[in-house]
Design brief:
The protein has 8 helices and 15 strands. By secondary structure, it is an alpha+beta fold.
């Protein structure tokens, strides 16, 4: 993105939108700033100058601007341009250790934080001038793109997960996980399975199987899969005496995950078979299972395969009973 320039006596022609402005003297940058309203912010430098403004106002020969779609984009672009052009009066007023940076750890579920000291051990964005405005920008950004902020993963999903602002990698540290699968052929002899792992090991005393009841209607694979899954989950969670899991794993994609989340308040994830994509609440796009730590990768596959095996076994048993009755 390039600056567009105006003489300093043409301030009235600046845009009244969010964006970046720059004061220049010849070919050099004096100062770069951001604003919710570029025209009004630039006017304020001249009409109500702060003490610092007096250092450079008389040196300005032209004013540059770049329009942005939002204040958050303006904040990020300001940091990028200050780093690129090193404007004289931005740099004089702050040495490197007083700038703010966004740190992003190099993990499967990155932690996002604010720091004064960028390091090679993590990715970073910056520098930023205002820590207060940076915190506010991250607060708004988190509502759209959930991210993790905790240094140590808690034992259960935190407040931010329930607000829809964290993908909750702590889900994978759960003590008790239940996995569900549905097995049928065109809706016939439909069965559901529930397998339980405690401390990463199968606990067969807590396994359950369900004979699914489908109303007499034309079978619609995709729609009926959701109906059958919701029936299994509703029946399971009508048994509080079985205890509650910390997490449930569903065989399927986003539709199956939404079905689970609408049926129970227990945290849920869903695994789509074709590409082993993991769907998690609060994340717009699925996570490739192979991108997760090896122990998590193995555990989720083991849960999925065990639930599938258990559902299929019961389905085959019901088919054998049907065949025997026909003869």
């Amino acid at each position: 993105m390039e600056f567009r320039y105006l003489p300093k006596d043409k301030i009235s022609q600046l845009p009244k939108t969010a964006g970046i402005y720059a004061f220049k003297k010849g070919g050099g940058f004096l100062y770069i700033g951001k604003a919710a309203n570029v025209r009004e912010r630039v006017k304020s430098h001249f009409q109500r100058p702060a003490y610092r403004d007096n250092f450079f106002l008389n040196q300005i020969s032209k004013i540059g601007y770049i329009k942005t779609d939002s204040q958050i984009k303006a904040l990020l672009l300001e940091a990028e341009l200050i780093k690129k052009y090193q404007p004289k009066y931005n740099i004089i007023w702050r040495d490197d250790k007083n700038y703010f940076y966004i740190g992003i750890t190099k993990e499967s579920f990155p932690r996002v934080f604010i720091t004064h000291q960028p390091k090679e051990t993590f990715n970073f964005i910056g520098p930023f001038v205002s820590g207060r405005k940076l915190k506010q920008a991250l607060k708004e950004l988190r509502k759209v793109y959930p991210f993790r902020t905790c240094k140590t993963l808690p034992k259960k999903p935190c407040f931010w997960y329930h607000l829809g602002q964290c993908p909750a990698p702590c889900l994978f540290k759960s003590r008790r996980i239940e996995a569900y699968d549905v097995s049928n052929i065109q809706g016939k002899d439909a069965t559901g399975s529930m397998v339980t792992f405690i401390n990463r090991k199968p606990e067969k005393n807590f396994y359950r199987r369900f004979k699914i009841k489908i109303p007499n209607q034309k079978f619609d694979g995709g729609a009926n899969d959701i109906v059958m899954l919701k029936q299994v989950l509703s029946r399971r969670f009508n048994h509080p005496e079985w205890g509650l899991p910390d997490l449930i794993l569903i065989d399927g994609g986003k539709a199956q995950l939404n079905a689970a989340l609408s049926t129970t308040k227990v945290p849920a994830i869903a695994l789509a078979k074709r590409r082993n994509e993991l769907y998690v609440k609060n994340l717009e796009k699925p996570i490739l299972l192979k991108a997760l730590p090896r122990e998590v990768f193995n555990l989720i596959l083991q849960l999925r395969d065990e639930a599938h095996r258990f559902a299929k076994k019961y389905h085959h048993k019901l088919r054998e009973i049907d065949l025997f009755q026909k003869f």
